[in-house]
Amino acid sequence: MPGPAAPVAAVLIWGYRAYRAHQAYEAAQTAKETVEMARDIAKRQEEVKRVLRSTIESFAKEIHEKSSTFAKVDSGGRSTVSRRGVEGTTYKEYIERKIPFRPAISIACTWSLASPIKVPRRIQKRIPGEIIETTIEVALKQTTASLVFEAIDSALDWKNPLKAEPNYLDGKALLGEPSTKPKRTNDIFPFWPRPRGCLAPDLVIVEYRQQPFDVPNVFAVVEIKFPGDWVKAKQLGDYAKIMGQDNQKVALLRVPEDCTGYRPETDPKKEAGHSGGRRNR
To answer: Global pTM?
Structure first.
């Protein structure tokens, strides 16, 4: 497979540009910001090639194996590590659910946590006597991870077992062409907006990679939570509903706590530069 990492880098650049176009009404469009963002993307291209090449090649070799085969060796997430309150107890079964390819998923997610696509966003601040407009930088961690998974899928001719944010309507998968490719309704930005009434889990892992991601072929749906994005019971319940009320197919992966290689003594908030509870997709 020639140059497997090239599509990854290309999609990340495309995703950055597409997101800016899609969100142009709220993003700052100055020449200086554009140059800075282009420089940042260019710098990270080499890291993408280095980090993800082995992951893509591994999936290419494992294309005929079932996902359940790889799930058997997974140790599950760490319910003993909580971000707040009784999270580990409340969502224990979802956190500890065994999912295949956790090491590969961990590589993509921890890379996205460390090097997310960043976009400027205009906001208004109210101070005594006036309202001023300023610009903040928003880190799109979940979007970066989804673009990486989508890029790997594309590099494998849409036969990757990991599907990024595929849409389901009333429990029915929206299939593209080929049928193993998620159908996208927006040519500018693949993950948003979604078709009316659709739900899209962050990540869907299929059992047989050369078959569509219809519910019977889904091994697991994974809700991915980066620092500052809290677990919501309704989301997990909605995903179980998609899967025909089967919550045994629903898993929760908190980044970096449930990623392979995470050290519990490490503070994820410090690693991510987290300073608040707002979710940035």
So the answer is: 0.78
